[in-house]
Amino acid sequence: MKTQISTLCCALAMLLAACASTDVPVAQNPPLHAQQKVQSVDHWDNLADTAAQRVVKTLEDRPDLTAKPLYVQPPSDRPFSIAFYNLLRTRLVTKGMQVSNRLEPDSLIIEYDVQTVRHDNNGTWMPGLDTLAVGLGGLVGAGYGPASDNEIVLNTRMLHGNRYVMHLSQLAYINDDEWAMYISTDSLDPQNASTRKVRITAR
After folding, report:
1. Which run of H or of E encompasses 6?
2. Please, what sign has the CA dihedral across residues 158, 161, 164, 169?
3. Neighbours of 135 (CB within 10 A)
4. Whole-number Cα distances in Å, 173 to 25, 36, 70, 123, 199
5. What is the pLDDT of residue 23?
6. Any idea what the Cα angle at residue 65 is, between residues 60 and 71, rounded to 5°?
7. For 20, 112, 172, 187, which has the most beta carbons within 10 A of its beta carbon?
8. Residue 94, Ramachandran bin (φ over 0: left; ψ between -120 and 50: alpha; else beta)
C-alpha cells in the first residue's frame, strides 16, 4: 500500500513539475463518481425501466397527452436494440401505459438510438497509472470494478408531432468485446446516422 501511494505521489510530482514550465491551463478531471457497467440482459432491463419511468413522469406532467397511445419505433437488428425494444414495451404496459402495436394518427412516438464511444488508451500519459488508480479504487469498497475502454450513450425520446416531449440520455460502460451487440459495422457508414461509433484517443 505504501509503495502504491509513493508511486502515485511521484507521478503527481512529475506532472506538476512538467506543468510548471508552461503557461497553459492544467487539465483537471471532474470529481470521481460511479458509472454503471451493463453486462447482462437484467442490466438492459434496468435501462428500459428507467426510460419507462421517465415516460410515465412526463405524461403525468402533460395531462393533455395522457390519453394518447404510445408507439415504440421498431428496433435495429442488434441484440441490444431488439431486447430494449421489447423490455421497454413490457415496462410501459406494466405501468399502465397505452402501447399500440401499429402507428396511429394521434400516437406519441418513442424512438431510441445507441452511440458507442471507444477510448484509445494507448497514449496514456503515465504508463501504469490507470492500473494503479484501479487498484486504489478497489480499496475504497466492494462493488466497484475496473472501467472499460467502451461506453454507450442510450438516447430515448418521445415526440408529439415534430416536438420533443421527453429526451433521456443514459450513460454506461460495456464490456470491450461486446460493442457489436449494440451497433453493427453498417452503422459506421456516414450515410447511416441512427447509430454511430466514436473513437476518442487519449493525449
Report:
1. helix 2-20
2. positive
3. 13
4. 29, 6, 29, 20, 14
5. 77
6. 105
7. 112
8. alpha
Do 120 and 200 touch, CB atoms closer than 8 A? Answer: yes
Which pLDDT belongs to residue 160?
95
pLDDT in tens, 143-183: 667 778 999 999 999 999 999 999 999 999 999 999 899 98
What pLDDT, in 10s, does the model give residues 121-136?
Answer: 644 433 344 433 444 4
| pLDDT value of residue 190 | 41
Among 41, 11, 37, which residue's Cα sits nearest to residue 130? 11
154, 117 contact by CB (below 8 A): no
Instruction: Give the start-end residues of each E strand in the chain.
Output: 37-38, 70-72, 108-120, 150-160, 163-174, 196-201
How far is residue 36 from each of residues 46, 144, 177, 180, measured CA to CA in Å? 11, 9, 17, 19
DSSP state of 38: E
Global pTM reads 0.72
- The cell for 180 is 457489436
